[in-house]
Specification:
three-stranded antiparallel sheet, alpha+beta, single chain, globular, five-stranded antiparallel sheet, 8 strands
Length: 171
């Protein structure tokens, strides 16, 4: 699971290791605590529409350090970043889970951020999927069959998104 260490200037952090030598370090010992649902009460019009489309947000900056294949990637997901959860098609809900299921929160937040800011992982589509899978395992507690299905679904969809410099959208 997540190993709490002292890092990031002596503060507690969380280190998670995945397949193929992937190492993910968060500057928070429990990064999922900083992910919240938007409150819809009192929202109208475009504000409500946006909140329903992207119902989650980050309450504090979360810095992430990635080590993979002798490369280091550091980036910060800034406070108030919002995202839509995991894009799970309805026909897969029984197998994988629903889009806004809490177990997807951290994995979908980090993955959506990487998709919107591909440069933070050096435009490495495969790495972004590996990070998603690793976070689903440790923070979502998904079993190996579901993780396998999610990994290959996400990876194959992203192959259609042309992960190159200058291209920004993927889900």
């Amino acid at each position: 699971m997540c190993v709490v260490l002292r890092n990031f200037g002596g503060l507690p952090c969380c280190t998670v290791e995945g397949r193929q030598g992937l190492k993910i370090v968060f500057n928070k010992d429990m990064p999922e605590v900083y992910l919240q649902d938007k409150i819809l009460v009192g929202l109208n019009g475009e504000e409500l529409k946006k909140a329903l489309n992207k119902p989650f947000y980050v309450t504090e900056d979360i810095s992430i350090h990635i080590e993979y294949e002798n490369q280091i990637y550091d980036f910060t997901i800034e406070k108030n970043y919002d995202w839509n959860g995991a894009n799970v098609p309805p026909f897969c809900w029984l197998i994988i889970g629903q889009q806004k299921e809490p177990r997807f929160k951290l994995a979908s937040c980090v993955h959506d951020y990487m998709c919107e800011h591909r440069e933070v992982v050096g435009y490495n589509r495969y790495l972004s999927t590996l990070i998603f899978e690793t976070l689903c395992e440790y923070f979502g507690r998904f079993n190996s069959v579901k993780r396998w299905a999610m990994f290959h679904s996400v990876d194959n969809f992203q192959k259609t998104q042309r992960w190159r410099k200058g291209k920004k959208k993927c889900n």
